[in-house]
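Internal ticket - ligand job 224, calcium ion:
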Amino acid sequence: MPRVLIIEDEKKLLTGLQRGLEQQGYDASAAGTGEDGFYLATTRSFDAIILDLMLPRRDGLQVLRDLRARGFATPVLVLTARDTVDDKVQGLDAGADDYLVKPFAFAELLARLRALLRRNLPLRELVLKAADLEMDLLARRVNRDGNEIELSIREFELLEYLLRHVNATVTRDMIARDVWKEPGGVLTNVIDVYVKALRKKIERPELRQLLCTVRGVGYVLRDQ
Ligand code: CA
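stdout (structure tokens):
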């Protein structure tokens, strides 16, 4: 059952969308403010987010920017009453995947949502890549520049996470939560030790550095 988060402050629209989506077989969660929406989006897992732009307590564009800045790649369908080119450009820059201008037909929203969900099939992606580094999820193999790299299970999971967030900074908290599944429970130096070990295996002096430290924040795997 696809999990969808709706962030919308118009109560009638919010409950209408939630009910409508549930009737269509979605697991729909609802948030009425930008703050609540951001909190849910960062603490639970969703397949897509429907995001209104004009929201109290953190507007939609800011929610979107904050999510993308933290490496959340969940597809976002933006709802906006403001049908101006400027807003669309801003929204796309902030990381929106699609747009729907209010008022819209529910059938149109369903069609856009289905298209977004089809696009976002991370679990079915079998090969993840960053520059000359490749991870084959089915064969559980990693190679860089054609040379196979042996990784422990945890190193593999850590690298997979970094590859899924390629070019986005991931914090140690995100790694603790999503890789170790122990939010706040993992000493950050444990993560640092794993990153160091991973780096030793994937980096080569003659090749460009991929796994970079963002001082005081976390790490980023760069493919450009
Ligand atoms: Ca609104």
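Auto-summary: The CA atoms of residues 144 and 204 lie 9 Å apart. The radius of gyration is 19 Å.
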